[in-house]
Amino acid sequence: MGTSDHTDERLSEALTQRGDRALALVDGRNVQRSRWPNVPDADMVRRACEWAEQEGVHAVVVFDGNTDAQGDGVTCTVVPVRGETADEWIIRQTAALHRLGVPFVLVTSDRELRRLAGSNATRIIGGGSFLALAP
Fold it and tell me: Which of 119, 131, 135, 99 minimizes the C-alpha distance to 27?
């Protein structure tokens, strides 16, 4: 399956790596802040990679700004977003995924993001629930 001009190159890489698995777009900063103390970047990505492997999906962990955390290139990809918010990036990419017919899961507790990006998701998981699923 090809990608459209509206698909970010980082998402295109994840589409290639996913094979026939669904994608899971994880609102990294939102999920991190779902628990106190907040989950560090590297721990957040490790959890997402392990969860993705268990669920049979490819996780795309999206962070506002810089992060040193890295995905494993097999079960998860890390996208540090600059020049726009992670929410804006996720909204654009979920629209592209929908146009491409790619199933996706949205992981966030952000109600506005759920409303704007989650209408075509196969599943929406809140941040706290996600952290409980990915200890």
Answer: 131
Q: Over the chain (135 residues), what is each successive 10-residue block's mean pLDDT?
A: 50 67 93 94 96 94 95 91 94 92 95 95 96 89
| Domain 9-133 grouped into CATH 3.40.640.10 | no
Q: Domain spans of the chain?
A: 9-133
Q: Exposed (0-12), middle (13-18) or buried (19+): which is 65, by Cβ within 10 Å?
A: exposed
Q: Which 8-state DSSP code applies to residue 39?
A: P
Number of neighbours of residue 46 by Cβ within 10 angstroms: 17
Considering only CA atoms, give the Rg of the chain.
Answer: 13
Single pTM value for the model: 0.88
